[in-house]
Each structure stands twice: as C-alpha cells, then as structure tokens.
C-alpha cells in the first residue's frame, strides 16, 4: 500500500471530491481525519469509509478562526501529520456586479484563508516529507461562457499563488506543496451551482461541456483520486509547486 503509516487530514472530506480522496487514501493504508460542518454528512461518510480503513471525523466550520483552532487542537492531540488536503471550498458563480461583500468574505475565508492558516498552524505537526495538496479549479485560468466566475476564479487564483509560494518557502524543510485543478466534476457543489439556471441554459451548458471536453464528459469524483494518492505518496518526493490540471483535457485548448 502506497500510504501505509501516513496520517492525513482532508477538509471537506464528507462529500464530493474530498470523500473520494479520503476513500482512496484509506485504501492505500493511510489513517484519515475528515472535516466538514454537517454532523449527519460526516456520520454518513464515516459509515461509508469505515470498510476502507481507519477514519475519524470532526465537525468544524473552516471559514471561521474558531473552526480552524478546533481542527489544529485535534491534530495536535493525535500526533504528527503527513498529508493535508485543503479541499473544502465554496463557489459563487454570480455576475461581477452582483457580488456582495458577504459572498466575497465567505469565499476568501474558506477558499484562501482556511488553506493559508490551516497549513501555517499545522506546520509544527508535519512529519518528514509532509505533503500539502490544495484543491484549486480550472476556473483560476479558464472561464466558461455565461458562467460568471470573477469571485471564484480570483479565490482559486490566490490558492494557486499560495501553492507556488509555499512550495518555495517550505521546500527547504522537506514539505511539498502542490495543487490539483479539476475540471467540472459531478458533485453537490456543481449540481447546486446549476440548479437555478433556466432549463434552456442548463441544456446549453451541457452541450458546451460535451463539445469542449476532449474526453467527452465531465469528471466523476474518483477521477481525482489517482493524482491525490500520487502527490500524497513518497513516489512524489521530488514533486512540488505543481498545479495539476485533471480536467478531461478541457484546459488544453
Ligand atoms: N465540483 C466541481 O466541479 C469542482 C471543480 C473544480 C474544483 N472544485 C473544488 O473542489 C473542492 C471540493 O468541491 P466539491 O464539488 O467536492 O464540493 P461538495 O461536494 O459540495 O463538498 C464540499 C465539502 O466541503 C465541506 N465544507 C463546505 N463548507 C465548509 C466549511 N465552511 N467548513 C468545513 N467544511 C466545509 C462540505 O461539508 P459541509 O457542507 O457539511 O460543511 C463537503 O464535505 C472545492 O474546493 C471546489 O472549489 C470543484
């Protein structure tokens, strides 16, 4: 098993991409702590994942400093950490002129500050060869017609910047920092972001995706697991500062 003996923290591990990554880590022998807000979702995830390995859960709102404090204290109490996946995120795909200050603050609190301060506060807990994996998005660099993304793109661009700067700053300590930039993946977040579009707009978006993804489909959550396991493992011992596009070829064009 490729992650035997390693301990991982996956934010947003109770659903979607984070849940699939958590399951893959467990199957490769890691112990995993997953964090989300909703205790029912966490319990459902724990039940689903238990068959795959040793999983623990914690309820915390990572867009708040008290939520970050609680997770840091939990990790401190349980020992060194080898893998941190900053995955929890929020996406307001709303027109630029309608973005509110509240949406702006929430986006930056979760998509940027949580990754920044969780990584910073957990540094003393990182074991040798620790791996930080930030879940970014293609939206940092490439847009979709009629999917207004100024706020979301800005936050994921900031996360990419953080990934590269931390790879430089933390590399001398043996800590690797990478990002995965998924294309569109079929998750609750994606479904929520399209459910209020008129039917015609949903059909137009579907046709656009089918046309634009060279591999002809959007992603499923399991499509991100392989790269996450690789980046978390010692096989990636010389891999840092990368932003890995896993998107069915969408950003190649
Ligand atoms: N789906 C896509 O098409 C896509 C594409 C590119 C990038 N991404 C990125 O991939 C990551 C995961 O997205 P997803 O689609 O898998 O989302 P998802 O299915 O909606 O899952 C989000 C997870 O994050 C948790 N979460 C949300 N807000 C939180 C908070 N304030 N504090 C702690 N946990 C929180 C959720 O649990 P609770 O709700 O219980 O807190 C859940 O476990 C995000 O960073 C997203 O930007 C997604």
Short recap of the structure:
This protein has 253 residues and is an alpha/beta fold. The protein contains eight helices and seven strands; from the N terminus they run βαβαβαβαβαβαααβ.
Instruction: Tell me the radius of gyration.
Output: 17 Å
Looking at CATH, the homologous superfamily is NAD(P)-binding Rossmann-like Domain
Order of helices and strands: EHEHEHEHEHEHHHE
Q: Biggest sheet: strands, sense, closure?
A: 7 strands, parallel
Strand order in space, largest sheet: 3-2-1-4-5-6-7
Given helix and strand content, the structural type is alpha/beta
Ligands bound to this protein structure: NADP nicotinamide-adenine-dinucleotide phosphate
What would you say the CATH architecture is? 3-Layer(aba) Sandwich
Count the beta strands.
7
Counted up, domains total: 1
> Could you name the ranges where pLDDT drops below 50 across 5 or more consecutive residues?
none
What's the CATH class label?
Alpha Beta
Q: How confident is the prediction overall: mean pLDDT?
A: 96
């Amino acid at each position: 098993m490729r992650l035997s003996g390693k301990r991982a923290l996956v934010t947003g591990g109770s659903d979607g991409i984070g849940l699939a990554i958590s399951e893959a880590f467990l199957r490769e022998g890691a112990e995993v702590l997953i964090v989300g807000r909703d205790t029912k979702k966490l319990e459902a995830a724990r039940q689903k994942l238990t068959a795959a390995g040793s999983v623990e859960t914690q309820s915390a709102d990572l867009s708040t400093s008290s939520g970050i404090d609680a997770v840091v204290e939990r990790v401190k109490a349980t020992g060194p950490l080898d893998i941190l996946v900053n995955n929890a995120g929020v996406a307001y795909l709303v027109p630029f002129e309608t973005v509110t200050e509240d949406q702006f603050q929430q986006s930056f609190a979760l998509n940027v500050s949580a990754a920044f301060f969780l990584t910073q506060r957990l540094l003393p807990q990182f074991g040798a060869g620790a791996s930080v994996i930030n879940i970014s998005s293609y939206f940092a660099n490439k847009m979709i017609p009629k999917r207004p993304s100024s706020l979301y793109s800005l936050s994921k661009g900031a996360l990419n910047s953080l990934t590269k700067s931390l790879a430089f700053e933390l590399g001398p300590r043996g800590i690797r920092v990478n990002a995965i930039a998924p294309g569109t993946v079929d998750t609750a977040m994606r479904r929520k972001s399209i459910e209020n579009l008129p039917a015609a707009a949903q059909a137009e978006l579907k046709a656009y995706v089918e046309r634009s993804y060279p591999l002809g489909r959007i992603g499923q959550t399991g499509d991100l697991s392989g790269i996450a396991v690789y980046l978390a493992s010692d096989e990636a011992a010389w891999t840092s500062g990368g932003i890995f596009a896993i998107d069915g070829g969408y950003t190649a064009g």
